[in-house]
Write a structure and sequence with these properties.
The chain is of the alpha/beta class and 98 residues long. The protein is 41% helix and 17% strand. The chain has one domain. A 3-stranded parallel β-sheet has the order 1-2-3, with helices on one face.
């Protein structure tokens, strides 16, 4: 099982400090997902595609993440779309707690 592909907590400084447009952020996420999931296509059977997307103590999306702020709430849907493109046969999950 692969954990985790998209997470607000683990991003390189060049991403979090960059002044990216929405389209550029989508391209960064797409390239990352296609590279990571595509590299292990057929070898990792399941992926936690998005990790901790829900705000602590809430039922709403975490709004203080890079992905939410740059792309908007549809970043979750896009992450799953890109993961499916990279490995059509993998089981895809959203991982969260509480």
């Amino acid at each position: 099982r692969g954990h985790t592909v998209v997470w607000h907590s683990q991003l390189p400084n060049w991403v979090t400090n960059g002044n990216f447009t929405r389209d550029e952020a989508i391209a960064i996420m797409r390239d990352h997902i296609h590279t990571l999931v595509g590299r292990y296509r057929g070898r990792i059977w399941a992926w936690d595609v998005v990790n901790e997307a829900i705000a602590d103590g809430s039922t709403a999306l975490r709004t203080n993440s890079f992905w939410f702020q740059k792309i908007g709430p549809d970043y979750v849907k896009l992450a799953f779309q890109f993961a499916r493109e990279a490995d059509p046969d993998a089981i895809l999950s959203l991982n969260d707690y509480n």
